[in-house]
Design brief:
It comes from Segatella maculosa OT 289. By secondary structure, the chain is α+β, with helices and mostly antiparallel strands. It contains 10 helices and 10 strands. Helix 3 crosses helix 5 and helix 9 packs across helix 10.
Length: 200
């Protein structure tokens, strides 16, 4: 069977695109320099619950944010509704997420950095942690996940292929946090079956 012939599978209440299993990916920060936090025309998708958690962590990340980002947050808050009506993190200059910070020319997430330093419980929005997986809510508890291809991640694709690391394995931590250990174990079982079906 060819990869193109695979269909969406359902695990629990999650519809999984086969690309999540068949495509390879591993972030290469040395090459991309964190471009995903500054490219695009809107901020990262967030939930109301995440907005509340971000607001609670503001004091811990404020010093890492640029003066421009601080001004945006003072004016409109940590998030806004984009042109499609979805809640996203606020941005600076039409592209940079307000929580971007720079170290040696590399773009990092102030929220994640504070968490790693033990200053906060909140890591970062699920949409950021799960990238390049994108989620879509279909109602009645049904969620879809698919692999989002973006040209700026070409180095991550190359690194993933060199390591033979599928998207779902690269994102094990975020997927477990979002859907649980048992769900992830089921995904791995399904992936094993699919990988055995694909023509080598």
């Amino acid at each position: 069977m060819k990869k193109e012939d695979l269909h969406i599978i359902q695990i629990g209440s999650v519809l999984v695109s086969p690309d999540v299993i068949t495509e390879k990916f591993c972030c290469d920060l040395d090459k991309c320099r964190g471009a995903c936090c500054v490219e695009g025309d809107a901020g990262a998708p967030v939930t109301l619950e995440e907005i509340n958690e971000i607001e609670e962590t503001l004091d811990a990340v404020w010093a890492d944010m640029s003066a421009s980002a601080q001004a945006v947050v003072d004016k409109q808050g940590v998030a806004y509704a984009d042109i499609e009506g979805d809640l996203v993190t606020s941005i600076v200059g039409g592209k940079d997420c307000v929580f971007t910070c720079y170290e040696d020319g590399c773009c990092l997430c102030a929220l994640e950095r504070a968490h790693r330093a033990g200053k906060t419980r909140f890591v970062k929005p699920a949409s950021c942690a799960l990238y390049p997986i994108r989620t879509k809510e279909f109602g009645h508890g049904l969620v879809g996940i698919n692999y989002h291809k973006w040209a700026i991640c070409k180095d991550a694709v190359a690194k993933g292929e060199a390591l033979n690391l599928p998207v779902y394995k690269f994102l094990k931590g975020p997927l477990v946090r979002r859907f649980g250990e048992d769900w992830y174990a089921e995904l791995c079982e399904a992936a094993k079956e699919i990988e055995e079906m694909i023509d080598k």
